[in-house]
Design brief:
The strands form seven sheets. The chain has a four-stranded antiparallel sheet. The chain has a four-stranded antiparallel sheet with strand order 2-3-4-5, with no helix packed on it. A hairpin with a 3-residue loop joins strand 27 and strand 28. Helix 1 packs parallel to helix 2. By secondary structure, the protein is α+β, with helices and mostly antiparallel strands. The longest helix is centred in the N-terminal third of the chain and has 32 residues.
């Protein structure tokens, strides 16, 4: 076979071919004829290997086992939960679309004037009240549904309730053995829900979720997530279910009324850090330290959209009230806006100079977005347009959380400097 291979006769060409093959162009005592024969042998060996390669590949393909789609068998309780969520979410979706059509029917000048007034008011926000909340960093804060109570939690393991707007302490909630990373009010707490019921949930790095009433300093129930750390918690809009983002690369769904885990959802390759429910109640978004956010359909159990684009971990996710816009904040210092109808990122805000710790939409009609960051600031952004309206600067260290009151009168930030601050228009 070697003799049948055509080899150049020019010595310069032979040296060039040897160089292409990664071989020395000249050996000690080697003449042009020997060099030409050496090239012939190398090309012959190469041709033999190429002939063998397809046969080996064919054998490997034949040895591959046929791929199968793997499903996790559902329990009867989970099936009932999925049907219940479907029946709950569909009427809410119809009502939302009806309200959207009414809002769209407003005259353009009227809508433009309302937006201009809103932006003008947001630009006037300033520090209304500042309070030392703990002797350790305050990791999370959230307003109650009636905007009269503020819940904070810190690395000391304590959760605290404060009155709004005077920031006076109401109650200290004791029970966690580690840093508290998430708190969430029941959607009807301080409104129609009995104060002795489960009005508040908190998750910590002791791997548990505590349920609290508004009348006791000790938890009324403890949910064990069987993990090292619970990063965030969030109530389903119905108030019946509670979601927990866990550091075992999964998130969990609990039926609060039965105090039973109904779903343990895996899918992330690194710890899950954030979780948020769509207002209709049909979808849930999770963000992980694997730089991925996923959108899950609670009615079917499917991951409907993987949201890929961040360069580092996704620390915060939030649905807009319209239920199809989603914001995600990341360690890569950016906030991405996703249109779930297009299943893609429609805008990226280079929002901060350090990681983005939290994102929150205005609860009414989502006309603005608030973000917090470890660059010691929180910022307000218009929606749509995503232009900066106001920078809330005043903390001495990184801002770990931000929230907007449901009555839209206040914004709260909590910080590593152990304080929380209320922000309001300066005219108030």
């Amino acid at each position: 076979m070697a003799r049948a291979i055509a080899v150049p006769t020019d010595d310069a060409e032979i040296k060039a071919r040897l160089r292409q093959l990664g071989q020395p162009i000249c050996l000690f005592g080697e003449g042009p004829a020997d060099r030409r024969e050496r090239l012939r042998q190398l090309l012959s060996e190469q041709a033999t290997e190429e002939l063998k390669w397809p046969k080996e590949e064919e054998r490997r393909v034949d040895e591959k086992e046929p791929e199968e789609i793997w499903y996790h068998e559902s329990t009867q309780a989970l099936r009932q939960v999925r049907f219940w969520i479907a029946e709950y979410s569909l009427p809410r979706a119809r009502d939302r679309l009806k309200a959207a059509r009414i809002a769209r029917a407003r005259p353009d000048p009227e809508r433009a004037s309302a937006t201009q007034d809103l932006h003008q008011g947001l630009r006037m926000f300033s520090n209304y009240c500042s309070q030392v909340g703990d002797d350790r960093p305050i990791s999370v804060c959230q307003f109650s549904p009636n905007s009269k109570v503020l819940a904070t939690a810190s690395w000391s393991g304590l959760c605290k309730l404060w009155s709004v707007p005077d920031c006076e302490p109401i109650r200290v909630l004791r029970g966690h053995d580690g840093n508290v990373g998430g708190v969430a009010f029941h959607p009807q707490a301080t409104l129609s829900l009995d104060a002795r019921a489960s009005c508040l949930a908190s998750g910590a790095n002791d791997g548990t979720v505590h349920l609290w009433s508004l009348e006791s300093e000790t938890p009324i129930s403890i949910l064990d997530c069987e993990t090292d750390r619970v990063a965030r918690v969030a109530y389903h809009p119905s108030g019946r279910f509670l979601g927990a983002a866990c550091f075992d690369c999964s998130w969990r769904l609990w039926d609060v009324s039965l105090e039973r885990e109904v779903l343990h959802q895996e899918g992330h390759s690194r710890p899950v850090y954030s979780i948020a429910f769509q207002n209709d109640g049909a979808l849930v978004a999770s963000g992980g330290l694997d730089a991925m956010a996923y959108l899950w359909d609670l009615r079917t159990g499917k991951c409907v959209i993987p949201l890929e684009g961040h360069l580092k971990g996704v620390l915060a996710v939030a649905f807009a009230p319209d239920s199809y816009n989603l914001a995600s904040g990341s360690e890569d210092h950016s906030v991405k806006l996703w249109d779930l109808r297009k299943q893609s990122c429609v805008y990226t805000i280079p929002s901060h100079t350090n990681l983005v710790s939290q994102v929150k939409f205005q609860s009414g009609d989502g006309k603005y977005l608030v973000t917090s960051s470890y660059d010691n600031t929180a910022k307000i952004w218009s929606h749509p347009g995503w232009s900066p309206l106001k920078t809330l600067a005043g903390h001495e260290s990184k801002v770990m959380c931000v929230d907007v009151s449901p009555d839209e009168k206040f914004i709260v930030t909590s910080s590593y400097d152990r304080t929380f601050k209320l922000w309001a228009p300066s005219s108030k």
